[in-house]
Amino acid sequence: MVVTKATSVKATLTRDNFLLPSNMDSRKHSQELDRLLGFNTLKIESKLKKHFQHYALENSDASKRPYKINRESWIGLDPHHLLTPYGEVASLFEKIEHKKIKTVTDLGCAYGRVGIVSAFYFPDVSFIGYELVSKRIKEAQRVYETLKLKNYRLIEDDILLEDFNLPESCIYFIYDFGRVSDLKKILNKLIERMQTNELIIIARGDEIQSLMTKFYKEFKKENTVREKSFLIYTHQLNE
């Protein structure tokens, strides 16, 4: 067997490596893990920034074209702000690892950090990640393959299209990926899933959390808890 850097890295990593050390900030911790895993996020985001408009739609650079018309791609944002820190994901999974989880779906997975951490906490769980920007998906696919992760699908797709088919899943991750009207489209699809499925929705971002806690009666307060930057909603059919 040929031992490559990637396979040796995976062999030495444990889930404890993803937990944030008490003497390190989350940005430095995530940067070190990215380097260890072989990600080229800074290089890729820098190239994207040269060709496409800034992430804030209302502050678009007229000299550059949008990545996709009427879609928020978050191009131009510092990767530290674009990506969820590994430590936060690991801390979250520490809280819910006792639950029976078969599938994790990430609606806006970027470089697939959630899928990597889930592979160490739930090695038999299937992971599905959706991302609008193709270069991010390709880079995540490359790293996943070199690490020989299994049970995953990374899909380049626009989750806001009317014909987007939200898959059944035990856990859904959702973020502030666009306008409030865009967030509502996905929340409405998740509410439809709640009619027939037990599930957990994990939300990160002020807008999505505000919508869930203040404007949708379907998300009951008693079923909602917070873990660091995440809002965790657990839905059961017998309610």
TrEMBL record:
Residues 99-224 form the Methyltransferase domain. Pfam families: Methyltransf_31. Signal peptide: none annotated. InterPro entries: Methyltranfer_dom (IPR025714), SAM-dependent_MTases_sf (IPR029063). It comes from the Bacteria. This is Methyltransferase domain-containing protein. It comes from Bacteriovorax stolpii (Bdellovibrio stolpii).
